[in-house]
Specification:
Blueprint lengths: L11 E2 L6 E9 L2 E8 L8 E9 L2 H8 L16 E9 L11 E4 L9 E4 L4 E4 L1
Antiparallel strand pairs: 1-3, 2-3, 4-5, 4-7, 5-6, 6-8
């Protein structure tokens, strides 16, 4: 099955407090800033991952420089798709994954945040 990269939803806010997280936002080509966002809740068929590691890959650098415009990028956006972490919440309807599973994500863009939500297809579990 062909799968397109997806950017998890992230609601930016202008305050710091409970229920918020730090994330890195690319405001425009060549301009990145730190912002606050609400910690997302997993929807039906999604898990929430507490991000532990995010790498910077060539695609991130190309998007930052304006040399690559994938069809799923619009500004502002977040970079980061080489990501691993721990599932900290499982949404309704998810089977076979549980809180505490260590995972690597694929087909998810925008992981320069403390938490991201995604569907199980995007998750690889590691013992």
């Amino acid at each position: 099955m062909v799968r397109k990269m997806s950017v998890p939803a992230m609601e930016l806010v202008d305050y710091d407090g409970p229920g918020t997280q730090m994330c890195v936002v690319m405001d425009e080509i060549g301009k990145i800033s730190m912002k606050r966002a609400l910690i997302p809740e997993p929807k039906e068929g999604e898990v929430r991952v507490k991000v532990k590691w995010v790498g910077i890959c060539g695609a991130d650098v190309e998007v930052f420089r304006g040399a690559r415009s994938p069809e799923f990028i619009s500004y502002p956006t977040r970079l980061g798709h080489e990501v691993a972490g721990v599932i900290d919440k499982v949404g309704p309807g998810v089977i076979g994954l549980k809180e505490g599973d260590h995972v690597a994500l694929r087909y998810v863009w925008g992981a320069f945040a403390e938490y991201v939500c995604c569907g199980p297809f995007s998750v690889n579990v590691f013992a």
